[in-house]
Design brief:
The two termini are 23 Å apart. Helices cover 20% and strands 32% of the residues. It has a domain at 466-484 and 491-505 and 525-709: Alpha/Beta hydrolase fold, catalytic domain (Rossmann fold), CATH 3.40.50. The protein is of the alpha+beta class. Strands 32-33-35-34-36-37-38-39 form an 8-stranded mixed β-sheet, with helices on both faces. Strands 3, 4, 5, 6 and 7 form a 5-stranded antiparallel β-sheet that branches. The longest helix has 19 residues, at 682-700. Residues 1-21 have low confidence and may be disordered.
Length: 711
């Protein structure tokens, strides 16, 4: 009898603990003061009551952030299985991660993370049989692990290296110059570099780009004029030579680098995220100056390689899906360009290695790689391990082999060694992740958007899942700036899948999956196509019984945060949960901060015309929120060091949402500290993911199986 009572007690406790939890109702949100700021656009007055939130250095903003975080983390602390989610995420991320090896000087270098290290460590060994030693350990750069490595550049002979540091995840970096052999500093730190690589010229100096340090807040003030400099090691920064940059004709993005033979300097200049000018200088010519190759911003042009004065350039000029052309430096006019690899129906990305051309094609959002000689003659198609995403087909001229990565939704990113001469690929490293890929399936569907356009979408879930409309589903997309979302592995996503969740990833217009035409179909006055594509993806998942509105979460970051903000304000009934992350939420003022004006190619600005202003205001998430409307359970996410999409966007959106929301769903904002446009280290990334998954399940009224295992 005693055993019977015990069994009944356990059964009752299990049933009680497995009950669908009822999400808390937030009785009161922190006060968000209003000001009487009004802007006038083409005769129309637009109030901006939270303009004060744009000043990120004030105590008022700091106090508001503290108050909002107290409410948000107070809510999250009440979710009973939040700790179990974090523990499982840590377990899934706790595996050795290895980067492709590369040779510089006498050493072979490689990146490695033992498992839960906040940052990858750079190791090296002298030759294949050499003893492995730590070269750089970013985990030691700061006590809390929020200073990360922003980029590493070796001189050609491997004797010197410059590495950049980002504090708290911001885009501004400092460069440390050291002797690569002894690891001793060669000079003082070079401070305040932004949006730049470092390109060595011999061992004496290097090229880098940056802006003048802005007045006011470095994290939010507008940056307009990007300039390219040459720095000679050991000389004061004030003596750096200005190579390219004009105060009268500013360029927002300027890049400079050398060809592999270090004979030519390549300079690209742009005013937006699409289209660039192209300049080349022969450094062997004492009287040589930058020669203009392309003098407009209408197309993309990227120098791939050179053979003496013969240049190979990837361009989308007269080729929306890209092509590779050649020209001689003596006669570089566009009318002299000749196709080496002609445009096809699939989008091309090209590189060189070992005296060969590698063409990486995107075929219905999956990778296909072809190997050509330098004249464009097809040698072979590279046999990949499966259907997914491959990258890294680049190497030095003298290399006999290269290393590339391959990944898919349930295929952890693995490294393959490719023999350039024979075309044979062999597995070099495959991580051991605590999951069974055979338990899952991935399918690609093509659904119909509002205007009849067919849009591809990947859907991933456990095999044998029941299509009953009750599966928690995570819908993630981007849709902008010609960026392609291809299949890729995320250990954190496995946690969602193994607990019965579905992951869906549509490839919206505005992205680059089908070339420049696909991109342009989601820009400026066609931006609504992107939102329609996303809404149609959600509707497809509901129609086909994968899920229902009560079990659907929508998520996107940056431009994807705008996507989620626009979707939830246009269709607040579509999803139960919304995660607009580091989003562009104020479409009337986005171009007033940092390098935001460079996004105008995709968005247009409210200053362009009355028509453009009205179009932007209509979908701008901050301005599209309607009074007395029930919105999804929402957790806006941003960070205090985000100097790409300033946190004021998210602050204004959250304050406006809290004021106008009429319903029981919580609408919160989670503001990370010492992080930027992305998490500044692994531990912060895991914490953020745990909070999002916990918030989603809790508001869907779902107890994930991992929580029941701990009973």
């Amino acid at each position: 009898m005693k055993n019977l009572y015990y069994l009944l007690f356990i059964l009752l406790m299990t049933v009680a603990c497995s009950k669908t939890p009822k999400p808390d109702t937030i009785s009161q949100y922190p006060a968000s003061a209003k000001v009487d700021t009004v802007d006038t656009y083409f005769g129309t007055e637009v109030p901006d009551p939270y303009r004060w939130m744009e000043n990120d250095t004030t105590k008022q903003v700091a106090d508001w952030v503290t108050a909002q975080n107290e409410v948000t983390f107070g809510f999250l602390d009440k979710i009973p299985y939040r700790a179990a989610i974090k523990a499982r995420l840590e377990a899934l991320n706790n595996y050795e991660k290895l980067g492709s090896p590369f040779k510089r000087g006498e050493y072979i270098y490689f990146y490695k993370n033992d498992g839960l290290q906040n940052h990858y460590v750079i190791y090296r060994k002298k030759g294949e049989q050499g003893e492995v030693e730590v070269f750089l350990d970013p985990n030691t750069f700061s006590a809390d692990g929020t200073t990360r490595l922003g980029g590493v550049s070796f001189s050609k002979d491997g004797s010197r290296v410059a590495y950049q540091l980002s504090v708290g995840g911001q885009d501004w970096t400092d460069a440390i110059i050291i002797d690569a052999v002894t690891k001793q500093p060669l000079e003082d730190t070079i401070r305040d570099i932004k949006f730049s690589g470092i390109s060595w010229r011999g061992n004496d100096g290097f090229y880098f780009s940056t802006y003048e340090k802005p007045k006011g807040s470095q994290l939010s003030a507008k940056t307009q004029n990007h300039k390219l400099y040459y720095h000679k090691v050991g000389t004061p920064r004030a003596q750096d030579q200005l190579v390219f940059g004009d105060d009268k004709n500013p360029r927002r993005y300027v890049g400079g680098g050398l060809t592999e033979d270090e004979r030519f300097l390549i300079v690209t200049a742009a005013t937006s995220t699409t289209g660039n000018e192209l300049y080349i200088q022969d450094l062997n010519d004492p009287k040589g100056k930058l020669k203009t190759i392309v003098n407009n911003f209408e197309n993309e042009h990227n120098v791939i390689d050179n053979e003496g004065t013969r240049f190979l350039v990837q361009t989308n000029l007269n080729a929306p899906n890209n092509r590779v052309v050649e020209f001689d430096f003596a006669n570089p006019a566009i009318e002299n360009w000749k196709d080496v690899i002609a445009e096809t129906e699939n989008v091309l990305s090209s590189s060189t290695g070992g005296g060969n051309l590698f063409a990486d094609y995107t075929v219905d959002v999956k990778t296909q790689v072809k190997q050509y000689d330098m004249k464009g003659k097809l040698i072979r198609e590279v046999e990949l391990p499966g259907i997914g995403s491959a990258g890294g087909f680049g190497a030095k001229l003298e290399d006999k082999e290269l290393y590339y990565s391959f990944t898919s939704f349930t295929y952890p990113s693995s490294i393959f060694k490719h023999d350039i001469a024979t075309g044979k690929s062999t597995l070099y490293n495959q991580p051991k992740v605590d999951f069974n890929p055979e338990d899952y399936e991935t399918k690609q569907v093509f659904y119909t958007s509002k205007d009849g356009t067919k849009v591809p979408m990947f859907i991933v879930h456990k095999k044998g899942i029941e299509l009953n409309g009750k599966n928690p589903t995570w819908l993630y997309a981007y849709g902008g700036f010609s960026i392609s979302l291809t299949p890729g592995f995320s250990p954190s996503r496995i946690m969602w899948l193994e607990n019965g969740g579905i992951y869906a990833q549509p490839n919206l217009r505005g992205g680059g999956e089908y070339g420049e035409k696909w991109h342009l179909a989601g820009t400026k006055m066609q931006k609504q196509n992107v939102f329609d594509d996303f809404i149609a993806a959600g509707e497809y998942l509901i129609k086909e019984k994968y899920t229902s509105s009560d079990y659907l979460a929508i998520h996107g970051g940056s431009n994807g945060g705008l996507l989620v903000g626009a979707t939830m304000t246009q269709r607040p009934d579509l999803a139960k949960v919304a995660f607009p992350a580091v989003g562009v939420m104020d479409m009337l003022r986005y171009h007033k901060f940092t390098a935001g004006a460079g996004w105008a190619y995709d968005y247009g600005t409210a200053d362009d015309s009355k028509e453009m202003f009205e179009y932007l205001r209509n979908y701008s998430p901050v301005h599209a929120i309607k009074p007395n409307t029930a919105y999804p359970a929402t957790m806006v996410t941003t960070a205090d060091h985000d100097d790409r999409v300033v946190p004021a966007h998210s602050f204004k959106f959250a304050a406006t949402l809290q004021q106008n929301h009429n319903g029981t769903n919580p609408v919160l904002i989670r503001i990370d500290v010492k992080s930027g446009h992305g998490s500044s280290n692994l531990s912060k990334a895991i914490e953020s993911s745990a909070d999002q998954y916990a918030f989603a399940w809790y508001n869907m009224g779902v107890v994930p199986p991992l929580a029941k295992k701990d009973l």
